[in-house]
Amino acid sequence: MSPVMLFLTVLCAVLAITLGDNSTDSYRLLRIKSELFDPLEVLDNWSPRADMCSWNGLTCSYDDANLVGLNLSRSGLSGTISHEFGYLTSLEMLDLSSNSITGLIPIELGQLQNLRILLLYSNYLSGQIPAELGRLKTLQVLRIGDNMLSGEIPTSIGNLSELQVLGLGYCQLNGSIPIEIGYLKHLISLDLQLNGLSGFIPEEIRGCLELQNFSASNNRLEGVISASMGKLVSLQVLNLENNTLSGSIPIELSHLSNLRYLNLLGNRLNGEIPSEMNQMVQLEILDLSENNISGNIILLNTKLKNLETLVLSGNALTGSIPSNFCLSNSKLRQLFLARNKLSGEFPLELLNCSSLQQLDLSDNSFEGKLPSAGLDTLKDLTDLVLNSNGFSGSLPPEIGNLSNLESLYLFGNMITGRIPAQFGKLRRLSTIYLYDNQLSGKIPRELTNCTSLTEIDFFGNQLIGSIPETIGRLKNLVMLQLRQNDLSGPIPPSLGYCKRLQILALADNNLSGLLPPTFRFLSELNKITLYNNSFEGPLPASLYLLKKLRIINFSHNRFSGPLSPLTGSNSLTALDLTNNSFSGLIPSALARSRNLSRLRLAHNHLNGSIPSQFLQLTELNFLDLSFNNLTGEVGLQLSRCYQLEHLLLNKNQFSGTMPAWFGRLQKLGELDLSCNNFHGTVPPELGNCSRLLKLSLHNNNLSGHIPPEIGNLSALNVLNLQRNNLSGSIPSTIQQCRKLFELRLSENFLSGSIPADLGRLTELQVILDLSKNLLSGEIPPSLGDLLKLERLNLSFNQFQGEVPSSLGKLTSLYMLNLSYNDHLEGQIPSTFSGFPPSSFFGNEKLCGPPLLSCLKTSGQVRKRLSDTAVVGIMVAIVFTSIVICLVMLYIMVRMWCNWRKVLISSMDGSGTEEKREEEEWVYGDEKGRNDEYWKVNSL
């Protein structure tokens, strides 16, 4: 203790001895002051030199003999509550609320037998509520909520027989509500909200007959709402929202004739709304939303004249709104019926609710046209929410007469026609959502008269024409969403004067032209999407001034020139410029956006290498640089991008070897390095990428063996290694990739046989392509287990033996190629007869449809005879054929000689003519044979 404090303590002790109780209290208060931190110097005049009753926050008795009140609320105090408070026994009121006091509630406070009011709320107190507080027999107000108190509510609370106000809300209390609460006969207000209380609401609470305010919202209370709650006839506020209460709403609640506020939202209540609730004539606010209440709406007859807010959203209510709903003297201001199963046409009964300010019928099954007559009688309406229904027809121009309208939500309907020009009269309109309808025509120029507009969303309609040139009048505009329409023409330069604009979405239209240089004024812009249009030309250099841009999507346009104007913001999270004509280098300045997660620059004319600064993009998730003219090696530029899930570098001119650090990208799901100039081996470290779904390395110069670690990629769907220089055998570990549905290993130098385990890849569907390799051996019958396979290509290899009959089970197969294997033989499975002969070319020993048929008998004999027997049979056949030919030749010679003798004997001087005919026949025969020989050769 410092010398000063020691002096004060001694001085106060002397004063206490000489002056009596008053000085004793001052001594205690100075001790209390020493344990508090007072940055606002509220306690500066707490000094022994001044009269204690003049100290800040203190109240003394009429004769200044006793300290009866201490109020230091909102004084900026911190520190702890001193045990010395327990010795200020004359205190009747102690208020330390709304400070920054920490620590425990001292048990010594239970000694203050005269205390009537104890206010410790809105601090940082922790620990449990001391049971000793139950000794304060005269206590009327106990408010210690909005702290970090934990544990259960002590049962000793039930001893506070004079208690009128108990505030324990906004803490971390658990356990159940003690039944002893029912002993508090004079309790008027009970606040238990925002804790972790569980169990049932005790029946004993019916003993609190004077209770006016009961709030136990945002806990974990369960069970049904007790009928005994109906005995609390003085109750004015009942708030049980966001618990897990179940069962139906008890009819007995209708006995609470003084109830003004009833909130049961966010429970598991079911059944219908009791019609008896129409007797609660004082009810002003009723919220039954987010339950499972069903049936029809039977509320709001002539008795509920004071009801101002009715919230029934998020239930299973059916039918339509009753005809006696809302009579002329109704005070109803807020009606929320969203997310139910209500049906029918727009309820004209609502037009009687002349005091309505907010109307929400969204997410129901209403249909038909919106009323054109009478809608403008709702002159006080500020929010009209009719989205996600089945309304059709055109927009009533009368909506333009709702002069107080601020929010108009009509999206997700089937509304057709034009946007009425009368909407331009809605000068207070802030939000207009008309997206997902079938609106047509132009955006009315008059809409730009609504200068209070902050959000416009016309997405997904059929609007045509240009964006109004006067759009710049909307100085308060924050969001402009016109995506997916048929708008054309350029972006108006005046748009640049909407200086508060944060979101600009013009994608999926037919807009064209250059970006206006006035975009430099959109300093608040953080998201701009222009994709799928026909914008062209270089980007304005002034775009570099837009420092808050986070999302840019200019893909599928005709932009050209460098990317540098888009690098002014260090806040980029997504940049997509796919399918344009951008050229030059990838700017290293992009690496300044440390939160960049998506970078897509594919299908442009970019050149150079990946900037080394990309090493800093540790949040990068999607990188697509495919279809450019990029060169160089993939060194360490991406080695720290551990969040990468998609890495697409295909269709460039990258060279060098594949880096081993790819194996450290544990989240990688897609790796495409195809169509480059990579060489060297496939790094076995890729086997560490356990989440990899697609691996495409085709069309490179990779060599060496396929690493067996590929089998570790158990999630792999696509493996494409074709058109490389890979050698060795197909690793059997591939069978561990059980989720493969596409496997391409063609056009390499793979050798050996097909592993029989490939038959375990039962999810293979798209293709199995092993063509153009040096594979040999027999085709494994296990391939017949690939029942989902649609394409099988084993052509241009050295397979031998028969085509396994098990392949006939591949009924999903629509493309088959077994051509040019030379050593395949035997009959083709009959189920392959529908494939073209080209599927089997280059296999002379195969037979059966669609090739030449096989004789079954000869096939069976051939199987039974030995090679020697077969040679003997062939020799016999040849010898027999020669003998037959000689006999036939002999017969023909004899016949010719006899004929010639007859011819000579009959000659009468015409020998020259006969010789000419003979020569013509001979030459003609020779000519025919020559022609035939030429045809054969040509074939």
TrEMBL record:
Residues 1-20 form the signal peptide. PROSITE patterns: LRR. It is a single-pass membrane protein. Residues 23-61 form the Leucine-rich repeat-containing N-terminal plant-type domain. GO terms for molecular function: kinase activity; receptor serine/threonine kinase binding. Keywords: Glycoprotein, Kinase, Leucine-rich repeat, Membrane, Receptor, Repeat, Signal, Transferase, Transmembrane, Transmembrane helix. SMART domains: LRR_SD22, LRR_TYP. The keyword Membrane applies. Residues 675-824 form the Disease resistance R13L4/SHOC-2-like LRR domain. It comes from the Eukaryota. InterPro entries: Leu-rich_rpt (IPR001611), Leu-rich_rpt_typical-subtyp (IPR003591), LRR_dom_sf (IPR032675), LRR_N_plant-typ (IPR013210), LRR_R13L4/SHOC2-like (IPR055414), Plant_LRR-RLKs (IPR050647). The chain crosses the membrane at residues 869-893. GO terms for cellular component: membrane. Gene3D superfamilies: Ribonuclease Inhibitor. The keyword Transferase applies. Its main location: membrane. It is found in: Membrane. This is LRR receptor-like serine/threonine-protein kinase GSO1. It comes from Tripterygium wilfordii (Thunder God vine).
